[in-house]
Amino acid sequence: MSTAPSAAKARLKRELALFLILMLFGILLLPIAIYFVGDAIFGDYAGAGFSDFYSTLHEALRGGELMVWYLVLSPYVILQLLRLTLYGFRRDRPAPARRNTSSA
Question: Per residue of the chain (104 residues), what is the pLDDT tens digit?
């Protein structure tokens, strides 16, 4: 009887760990990639380099700006959209109705 709650608890733990890892990726590594791609395409950042960019980003994050939160959470959101898309393709679809070919 206790297998269902323990399985759900294990799944919840795994999902929470995945969320935290991807959020950490969004906070630490994604801004680095954004900065260097922006630097290569648009040139120098208007501030004093990467540290100024990073501090501005975190100030906006602490200030509750939705676009910055979307940026930080985007790796997890993209993973969930991918999962939802794959679920839609894997889902069993009902077989098409067969036409009666007998000529009675």
Answer: 557 789 899 999 999 999 999 999 999 999 999 999 988 898 887 777 888 889 999 999 999 999 999 999 999 999 999 999 998 888 766 666 677 666 65
Phi, psi of 12 (to 5 degrees): -65, -40
Give the global pTM: 0.72
Cα–Cα distance measured from residue 23 to residue 78, given in angstroms and rounded to the nearest whole number: 12
CA atoms within 13 A on the CB side of 82: 6
CA 78 – CA 46 distance, rounded (Å): 29
Q: 49: left (phi > 0), else alpha (psi -120 to 50), else beta?
A: left
